[in-house]
Amino acid sequence: MERFNLQRRVKMNENRSESLDRRRNDDGQGTGMRPSENNVTEDQEPFMGVKVRRKTSFHREFNGDYIDVRSNQYLMKLLQKQGDKEVLFADKVLKFTSSGKMKRRILMITDFAIYIVDPEADALKRRIALAAVEKMCLSELSDNFFAIVIPTEYDLLMASTRKTEIVTVLVEAAKRASDYELEVCFSNSFEYNAGAELVKEVQFEEVEGGVKTRILRK
Q1: Which CATH number fits the domain that encloses residue 60?
Q2: pLDDT at residue 20 above 70?
Q3: What angle do CA 31, 11, 3 make, to 5 degrees?
Q4: 181, 200 Cβ separation under 8 angstroms
Q5: Per residue in 130-152, pLDDT tens?
Q6: Residue 73: count of CB within 10 angstroms of its CB
Q7: Closest residue by Cα to residue 20 from 217, 189, 209
Q8: Interior CA angle at 196 toward 194 and 197, to 5°?
Q9: What's the number of domains the chain is made of?
Q10: Structure-derived torsion over alpha carbons of residues 156, 162, 168, 172, reported in degrees to the nearest 10
Q11: In which band, very low, low, confident or very high, does the pLDDT at 61 lie, cut at 50, 70 and 90?
Q12: InterPro entries of this UniProt entry (predicted)?
C-alpha cells in the first residue's frame, strides 16, 4: 500500500472503500457521550437548542480528515474494498433516526460516495453514491443541521459544527463525480423523508441568543 498524503485529503491505494439551552464553544472538537439532566449527551446539546455560531467559524480553515482515517484499520479496509481512492471529509456527527433518536456516527465523504459508520461497532450503516444525492437542505440561520436528500432511498438528517465544510465538500465532490451541480436549498422550514412513508419537518426559529430547532412528524 502506498503512503498516505499527510495533508487535508487521504489518498487511497490505487488498487481499490433532535430544545436545550446549554452552549458549547464552536471549536468542532469531539466530546464524550456524557449523560445530562435531559438525557441528552453533552455533544448533542449544541445541536438541539440555542446555538450561537462564532464569527470565526466562518473563517475556519477546512482540514478534511478530523478523525485520522488512515490510522483506523476498519475504515481503511472498508474504503479499499469499495474502491474509493480519496477521502475528502471525515468526522463524527450526529445522525437522527426515523424514531427521533440521535446517534453518533462517522460521516465520510469520498470521491465516489457518502459513508455512515457506527464508530463503536465498526459497522457500515449506509453507503450512498454521490450520484444518488439530489440536494441538500439547510436553514438560513446559524444552526448546525443539514439534510441530504436521496430520492431513491430515505434521506439523512444530521448535525455538525462543521456544516459549512460538509456542504462545500459535497457540492465539489458531486460536481467532479457526476458533472452536475448539487442543489443547496435554504429555508427555515424543510421536510425530509426519515423512513419509508415517514415524512418529518424541521423548523428553525431565531430567538434571543441563537436558534431554536424543532423536528415534527408530518
Answers
A1: 2.30.29.30
A2: no
A3: 100
A4: no
A5: 999 999 999 999 999 999 999 99
A6: 9
A7: 209
A8: 90
A9: 1
A10: -70
A11: low
A12: Myosin_TH1
